[in-house]
Specification:
Layout lengths: L1 E12 L12 E11 L2 H6 L8 H14 L5 H15 L4 E9 L7 E9 L5
Antiparallel strand pairs: 1-2, 2-3, 3-4
């Protein structure tokens, strides 16, 4: 299985459980990884034969920027559902980083992997 990845996509979002977190946008860093077959794209050197990661990045930034979830877990699940469906992905991995969320730690985050269900 081939994979395409994006690392440290920077987004601003309302995220968090505490009242002060609901008042200001916070920076999130997003790592995305997608399963795909790059053979046809490589053979023909043609972007239309591969995942357009620019479009995936733009949609991710839009979704995250408009979201107002309390938990990173919820954001990750909902983002995964959107990307799996809208880009016809079979598998993806999402890592969400929330820098500075825990004192004396660089960041905190979550990693999920999801597959498109057979009926989708």
């Amino acid at each position: 299985m081939d994979r395409i990845f994006l690392t440290e996509l920077k987004a601003e979002a309302i995220i968090g459980y505490y009242d002060w977190e609901r008042q200001v946008k916070q920076t999130l860093l997003i790592d995305l990884e997608f399963a795909t077959d790059v053979a046809a794209a490589a053979q023909y050197d043609d972007v239309s034969r591969t995942l357009n990661y620019k479009n995936i990045a733009k949609r991710t930034l839009q979704f995250v920027g408009e979201s107002k979830f309390h938990l990173l877990e919820t954001l990750a699940e909902r983002l995964a559902a959107v990307l799996l469906q809208e880009f016809d992905l079979s598998w993806l991995k999402i890592t969400l980083h929330k820098p500075g969320a825990i004192r004396n730690s660089r960041d905190v985050g979550i990693v999920i992997e999801r597959r498109r269900s057979a009926g989708s």
